[in-house]
Amino acid sequence: MNPVALVGSRSTLARLLFPSWAFFDAPTSPPLLEIRQHIGIVAGGTWQSAFTAPTRRWWHLLFNPMGNQVLWYQTQIERFCASVANGVPGDIADDGGDAAEQHDDAMIVREIAERCIPPLWPRHGSPSWQYRIVVAWHSADSGSPIVVFESDVLA
Is 53 a domain residue? Predict the structure, then answer.
């Protein structure tokens, strides 16, 4: 047996058993979708989380439609944030495919935010609302979250 081949197979086995932890060097929070209600001419209410992950039970291993829906929401928000990093969302001045994809991603996030509006909000007499995407960093030096995108006030 060739000793070089033996060392090569051992190093391959070692890499499989001990993954590279460099993947975890820069932990960040996932982007969060927040919504708030506007009442009359007031600047706006407090921001609240648009959705939260449902509690998990043992049967959710087999059947979990709400968990799948929340996972899809989060995936679309992360996709939108990736498109924002590549350009300005909603800026469709050029006819490139990237601008159309950014516009589609922005519309999907808006639809998700609309689905998450609490049912009691329109009953309080104000259909105006707003949504934003924030990233909350887990460091002591920054107290407020970083706003990735904030919509206009919508009716």
Answer: yes
